[in-house]
Amino acid sequence: MSERLFVLLQHMMPKLALTRLAGRFASWQGGGVTTAAIRRFIARYNVNMDEAANSDPAAYATFNDFFTRALKPGARPLAEARLVCPVDGAVSQLGPIDHGRIFQAKGRDYSAAALLAGDAALAARFADGHFATIYLSPRDYHRIHMPCAGKLLEMTYVPGDLYSVNPATARGVDRLFARNERVVCLFEDEQGQPFAMVLVGATIVGSMATVWHGVVNPPRRPGLHKWNYRQQDIRLAKGEEMGRFQLGSTVVLLFPAGPLQFNASWQPGKPVRLGEKMAD
């Protein structure tokens, strides 16, 4: 199928209905049917179960349990770096935030303010800063971890579309990451500098969850919903789990202006692993 046709079909398909249906199946305790679906998924996407804390497909009561499976202790050691990669996935894009714009794909970009739910004041804190967009494919480990130690300041649920977030869609849909459903998590690092982790929803992503809140969606709210955590002193260490996707998606990270140097080996399309050096 051509990329153009693939994107056109996404404009037409009932994305929300498909997502709700997938979410119901993923949370269903279907016994042998669930185990068969997990085994088929492992074979289809060549999932490495040797890294899983429990490698037996029959041990997972639901597809979501399998999809958000834990890794064996020590499977992802943390690099000696200022920032480590927060997920397993592949680099979509990375680089400077140029006059408030974030590069998406050739010929396409979007504003940091739009990504951050229209919050111009928050976007200004990342003016001339840096971003990294990492895509999680179906075969990847789907828990999300901290790139550095941070104190949680706020979280915002942003309703939106549910387009796929794979590279073909990023090349074909304008403002993809700023129009899809997302959860914006704002932190402050140990130097008092802000950084944001934006969890982007997609077609058949049944839900997104954080460790401090639990499942954020569903329910899918009709408007913005913000939680303020400044008085709760919620702190997470570098490499600690902060959330997870129920079926795969994308994380966009924003950092303020300053002398940040991304890993020289990171290029669009490069596979990356949790814990490896992201930047100094």
Would you mind describing this structure in some detail?
The chain is α+β, with helices and mostly antiparallel strands. Helices cover 21% and strands 29% of the residues. It is built from eight helices and 17 strands. The strands form four sheets. Strands 2, 5, 7, 8, 9, 12, 13, 15 and 16 form a nine-stranded antiparallel β-sheet that branches. The chain is globular and about 50 Å long. The relative contact order is 0.21. The mean pLDDT is 89.
Features:
280 residues; alpha+beta; 9-stranded antiparallel beta sheet; 4-stranded antiparallel beta sheet; 17 strands
Shape: globular
User: How much of the sequence is in beta strands?
Assistant: 25-35%
| Sequence of secondary-structure elements | HHHHEEEEHHEEEHHEEEEEEEEEE
Please report the total strand number as a whole number: 17
> Please, how many helices?
8
Radius of gyration: 18 Å
Which whole number gives the mean pLDDT?
89
Ranges where pLDDT stays below 50 over 5 or more residues in a row are none
Through-space gap between termini: 40 Å
**Helical content class:** 10-25%
Q: Structural class from helices and strands?
A: alpha+beta
Compact description:
With 280 residues, the chain is an alpha+beta fold. Helices cover 21% and strands 29% of the residues. The protein is globular and about 50 Å long.
Please write out the topology.
Layout: H1 3-12, H2 15-26, H3 32-45, H4 63-67, E1 83-84, E2 89-96, E3 101-105, E4 108-111, H5 112-115, H6 120-124, E5 130-135, E6 143-145, E7 150-158, H7 167-172, H8 176-179, E8 182-188, E9 194-200, E10 207-210, E11 214-217, E12 225-228, E13 235-236, E14 241-246, E15 250-255, E16 271-272, E17 277-279
Antiparallel strand pairs: 1-17, 2-5, 2-16, 3-4, 5-15, 6-14, 7-8, 7-12, 7-13, 8-9, 9-15, 10-11, 10-14
